[in-house]
Amino acid sequence: MTKIAVILGSVRPNRAGASVAEWIASRANEAEGVQAEVLDLASFNLPIFAEELPPMAAPAKDPAAVAWNEALAGFDAFIIVSPEYNHSVPGSLKNAIDFITPSVLANRAIGLVGYSYSAGHRQIEHLRAILANFTTGVVGAQVNLHLATDFSGGAFAPAAFHDGEAASLVQALVAQDKALSTLR
Ligand SMILES: Cc1cc2nc3c(=O)[nH]c(=O)nc-3n(C[C@H](O)[C@H](O)[C@H](O)COP(=O)(O)O)c2cc1C
Q1: Of 4, 23, 24, 66, which has the fewest CB atoms closer than 10 Å, so is most exposed?
Q2: Which of 116, 121, 123, 149 to mutate to test the pocket of ligand 1 (most atoms within 8 A of CB)?
Q3: Whole domain around residue 133: which residue ranges?
Q4: Tens digit of pLDDT for each residue in 52-61?
């Protein structure tokens, strides 16, 4: 069984990301041997990172950060759902990543889903660079959603081919998890 947390990176009210996260979680749950659920960053109320020590020196002490790391520790793999804010990831998501104790992500598979008016490519590339500071297995398969064509009147209505992308992403994640589980 691969337990996947779908991390919802936007914390705004009425965020488009909520439907995207529910969609990818439900696509993942269609795969054999997968149990996926949404982990909503907004529910953790993380402060701006202001710890005395960096997480690679000592786990963050803020109670919200402790809860965040404990929640992550219960999963084998992650799908990060990120909007594009000013050509990158939203501050909420980068801040949450800054709080992560490296061992919590060690040898975990990660998949990326982006959405924006540029189909989410920029923040996904930035996430790949950010996550390179951890020892993870970020899969090459990804899902790129466009706010102009995959949303209709504000409602999420992904083009049919994204189901195939989602299936490929989940398949890659499960394979990566199987390989990495031998190292954990
Ligand atoms: C601070 C901010 C910056 C944004 N910058 C970009 C951008 O650089 N490129 C883009 O395509 N959309 C940009 N947008 C539009 C977002 O992609 C759009 O609002 C999307 O719905 C945000 O995701 P969310 O609703 O889940 O928070 C920006 C939105 C915000 C709030």
Answers
A1: 66
A2: 116
A3: 2-181
A4: 999 999 999 9
